[in-house]
Write a structure and sequence with these properties.
Among the domains are: 105 residues, Chitinase A, domain 3 (Roll); 105 residues, Chitinase A, domain 3 (Roll), CATH 3.10.50.40; 119 residues, no CATH class; 97 residues, Chitinase A, domain 3, CATH 3.10.50. The protein has 24 helices and 20 strands. The strands form 6 sheets. A 4-stranded antiparallel sheet has the order 4-3-6-5, sandwiched between helices. The protein has a 4-stranded antiparallel sheet with strand order 8-7-10-9. A hairpin with a 2-residue loop joins strand 1 and strand 2. Helix 4 packs antiparallel against helix 19 and helix 20 crosses helix 23.
Length: 669
């Protein structure tokens, strides 16, 4: 079953091949849209809308994609009928209902997203991330953290220390030894600052940007993140090998105990020797000896991994395996000793396959805030944002010193309610507007109770800039405006058709019967015959079925006897249909000799047996036998009746000159 939204989308597709992702192809000549193409009642409809509909997935610059004159006339007729129905829906007030508003807002929000500044910035960030994913880089770093409650002097001191360490490394000091000695990263005592290989979206964005911007051997300037200042040295970069799936057998060790270490090393060595024997079975040995309880009973299989996703020691050996089924010598990690087997390899997936994953990860990390900051900056520039900074500073102080419930009275007393906070495209937004915004249910703002003004104020600016962008799109972006209009009209069209055609035809049982009686000549059987048709599936069963049927005549229980005799033990021996069939349209019976009670017919190398019963001549179908077709035809009748009545109720004027202009552009003459 399709839901109502899916049906509406299908309706739009049927009317004018509408699709939210369709591209409107440009044409060399655009018709003059100053004069209306069609006027229905008092509503003017311009040529650009009809051309937009026609241009879905067509390029009229190519003669091969142009319409014939007949296709053009048919499309124009459909377009006028379409707009007539929309006009009627509006006159009936269907665009004023809560149901319409909710449906329209959902469609509008979805359709708006691709046109927004945010979407283009987000798309650029996605493409940048995927481009970086084509590489893996290896880096080391030194982290210098700030002391608790750091002062500005503390921050400067940490920065200078970072700059000194960079200078020391560039003068020849061993970077990894510097990391061991100075880094505040706890792991540096073990890895001397080495981060191993990683790719995009595995580090915080500022760290990633700095690391990917380095040449091999180059050391970065201090990079500030939430963790502190980092100095990064790029050690290697190479193409991303994609992902691998491996299995492992684990023998655990216990800290620095030399006795258990020796015992584990001896055990893993014996397991490795056992695996070299031709008769060894990996899964059995894994189940017997692996000490990883999560994988030992499933052959030691691990999830797909990429570079930078697991321990460097494990990763290095796993990615060195080249042939599926290849087994590594034992490798030591903090968990113990592993023997690794390569199961599968796959290259980096395409951008289309990874797009949703990349988007999800970007929207969860700091890049999301960065994108939003860029959006606001572009919107402020584009839509003439001017701020009353003195007033906003004054408000911040008032908000911090008073409880929220008291603010309206305090601001009114200070004569600030009507004061303008900022302008967007010369439209003022006042302190009163901000208070109203804060009291509405619409915004969701998480703020510090002690200083919540900044959060609410930023959200207020953000919402108003977004609304300005939407208004700008509607006024100046023809593709956006026409797309929104198309879906708005489509929802209204669906509502009207559902009320007056589709659902009405389904529920009007008396109307169905009357329509059936008035058009009985359309619901007639042709020559029919009672028959059993058997299509053989197994060649070895043909002779036994043939013998069984050779002396039989059609009887009501013959089909059951056939099934009980053959299909209980061999359910794929044949398929069987039993009933009354129109001879002309039946693929087997239209080749049969209806004067023979039993016959064998070969079609496309398939053996068919036919047992013929009573012949039935032409005659009317019973209403129950054809109700589905009656409803379909009744709907079509109601649709035509609706269009006819609308043409009687509305004056339709066609501007033939404008119509000819579109004809000249779109028709292959």
């Amino acid at each position: 079953m399709m839901n109502s939204n899916q049906i509406k989308l299908l309706l739009l597709a049927l009317v004018f091949s509408c699709s939210p992702k369709s591209t409107v192809k440009t044409v060399d000549q655009e018709p003059d849209i100053n004069s209306p193409l069609v006027t229905i009642g008092n509503e003017e409809i311009f040529a650009e809308e009809f051309l937009y509909m026609l241009s879905k997935n067509r390029n009229f610059n190519s003669d091969d994609e142009k319409l014939s004159a007949e296709e053009f006339d048919e499309n124009f007729r459909l377009f006028v009928n379409y707009k007539l129905k929309v006009k009627e829906a509006e006159n009936l007030g269907l665009d004023k209902t809560d149901e319409f508003y909710q449906e329209y807002e959902v469609f509008k929000e979805d359709l708006t997203q691709p046109f927004l500044i945010k979407n283009s910035l987000q798309e650029g960030e996605l493409m940048k991330a995927y481009s970086r994913m084509k590489e893996v880089i290896k880096a080391s770093h030194i982290l210098l953290q700030f002391p608790p409650n750091a002062s500005q002097a503390d921050t400067i001191s940490v920065l200078r220390m970072a700059q000194k360490l960079k200078a020391d490394a560039e003068k020849g000091a061993d970077f990894n030894e510097l990391a061991f000695e100075h880094s505040d990263d706890p792991s540096a005592k073990d890895n001397k600052g080495s981060l191993g290989y990683f790719t995009a979206l595995q580090m915080v964005s500022t760290f990633e940007d700095a690391a990917f911007g380095l040449e091999v051997g180059q050391i970065s300037d201090p990079v500030l993140t939430n963790f502190g200042y980092h100095i990064i040295r790029l050690e290697d970069r190479k193409p991303n090998p994609g992902e691998i799936r491996v299995s492992h057998i684990l023998v655990r060790t216990q800290g620095n105990d030399p006795v258990t270490e020796e015992r584990a090393l001896r055990k893993v060595g014996e397991i490795y020797t056992e695996l070299q024997k031709p008769e060894s079975i990996w899964e059995e040995i894994c189940q017997l000896y692996s000490e990883d309880p999560g994988t030992k009973n499933s052959g030691g299989t691990l999830p797909w991994i990429g570079l930078g996703a697991v321990l460097p020691e494990f990763e290095r050996v796993a990615f060195s395996l080249s042939e599926e089924g290849e087994i590594s010598p034992p490798v030591k990690t903090p968990y113990g000793y592993h023997i690794i087997r390569l199961e599968e390899k796959k290259p980096l997936e395409s951008y289309e396959e990874m797009e949703q994953m990349i988007k999800s990860r970007i929207l969860r990390d700091s890049r999301s805030s960065l994108i939003q900051s860029q959006v606001v900056a572009i919107q402020k520039s584009r839509y003439g944002f001017e701020e009353n900074e003195k007033l906003s500073t004054n408000l911040e102080e008032i908000f911090s010193q008073n409880q929220r419930k008291d603010l309206p009275d305090i601001l009114l007393e200070k004569n600030l309610t009507d004061s303008v906070l900022f302008w967007i495209q010369d439209h003022p937004k006042t302190v009163g507007d901000l208070l109203e915004f804060m009291d509405s249910d619409k915004p969701v703002v998480r703020s510090n109770p002690q200083n919540y003004f900044a959060n609410w104020y930023e959200k207020f600016i953000e919402v108003n800039l977004y609304e300005a962008e939407i208004q700008d799109l509607a006024a100046n972006n023809d593709e956006y405006r026409l797309l929104i209009q198309e879906y708005r009209d489509g929802i209204l069209l669906f509502s009207l058709m559902n009320d007056q055609v589709w659902q009405k035809a389904i529920e009007d049982s008396l109307g169905q019967v009357n329509f059936y009686k008035e058009n009985l000549d359309q619901y007639q059987w042709k020559n029919r015959i009672q028959a059993i048709v058997i299509t053989m599936g197994k060649e070895e069963s043909i002779s036994s079925v043939r013998r069984f049927l050779s002396d039989k005549k059609y009887m009501p229980n013959l089909a059951d006897r056939l099934e009980n005799t053959f299909l209980l033990d061999n359910p794929l021996a044949f398929t069987l249909t039993d009933g009354i069939f129109e001879v002309e349209s039946h693929p087997v019976l239209n080749r049969a000799d209806l004067n023979k009670a039993f016959q064998e017919i070969k079609i496309d190398n398939k053996t068919n047996f036919v047992v013929v019963g009573e012949k039935l001549g032409p005659g009317p179908k019973k209403f129950e036998e054809t109700r589905g077709k009656v409803i379909q035809d009744y709907q079509e009748y109601l649709d035509k009746k609706l269009i006819s009545s609308l043409k009687d109720n509305y004056i339709i004027q066609v501007n033939e000159e404008e119509k000819q202009k579109i004809f000249d552009v779109t028709v292959n003459k």
